[in-house]
Amino acid sequence: MSFEWKGVMPAVTTQFTSEDKLDLEMFQVNIEAQLKAGVDGIILGGTLGEASTLSDAEKSTLVNTTLDIVKDQVPVILNIAEQTTKGAILAAQNAEKEGAQGIMLLPPMRYNAGDHETICYFKEVAKSTSLPILIYNNPVDYKIEVTLDMFEQMLVHDNINGVKESTRDITNVTRIRNRFGDRLKILCGVDTLALESMLMGADGWVAGLVDAFPAETVAIYRLAKAGKVKEAIEIYRWFMPLLELDIHPKLVQNIKLAAVATGIGSENVRAPRLPLQGEERKRVLEVIDNGMKTRPSLPDYLNL
């Protein structure tokens, strides 16, 4: 499947049973809700997917299950977050063999690689696969920044053609566009900066709260791209308290709890994560409950 990095691409959660097995039934409920809402791709195995707790066999199951559910309606993308270049190459090659249509690629995990090491890491993975690659640039959480000069060296590989922009610096969208034009597609990776990023020229949104509110997320994107900015802002302002649940160390628990409220997920997480408790749980539920009570009516955003 040929595609571009654009539109709303959910970083989907991995659903677990109370016995800590993959809950493929609830997983399908969520994926089907995403497709109905009009998302443009499905990203598996990200932070929200609790990738660090998944076995290779479980990742394979998720890829194959998603491909079966999606049936070529949208691309299926696998996130790769490995500690070694060898491991990342193997993961990329396996993803391609299993039928994934793209890769979201993080810098090396645990080791704080220098610029040259990071460039070599990304380039070696790019050489090992024909799949399009979205570089995940998140120096806030992962302590490695991929600078524009670094991208300049990496773009000799045609399949490095997108960036998940999570630097938290909104002006970086303009810098990337000025430097590379359309050669490097830009997907915002921070829920609370998504509309601003799209208005500055980002091509799309790797979203988190979409896992609970897919229609509202896609509506904001479609309205913004159709020039209906006022309508997009109205939904975005309602959404903001919920979107802030994404920029938190317990974003997985927060978003899974929100998906319980909308009926498209469970709050089961894999240890060492545990469901929210006490005052923290109460606070998050108040945000979710208020969002549910004031949930806006949406325009016919799929037919703009």
Automatic annotation (TrEMBL):
Top-rank lineage group of the source organism: Bacteria
Record CDD domains: DHDPS-like
Gene3D superfamilies referenced in this protein's UniProt entry, alphabetically: Aldolase class I
Keyword Lyase recorded: yes
Residues that bind pyruvate: 206
InterPro entries: Aldolase_TIM (IPR013785), DapA-like (IPR002220)
Active site residues according to the UniProt entry: 136, 164
SMART domains, A to Z: DHDPS (SM01130)
Spans traversing the lipid bilayer: none
GO molecular function annotation: 4-hydroxy-tetrahydrodipicolinate synthase activity
Pfam family of the protein (one): DHDPS
UniProt keyword annotations, A-Z: Lyase
Family statement drawn from the similarity comment of this UniProt entry: Belongs to the DapA family.
Name of protein: Dihydrodipicolinate synthase family protein
Taxonomic lineage of the native organism: Bacteria, Pseudomonadati, Bacteroidota, Flavobacteriia, Flavobacteriales
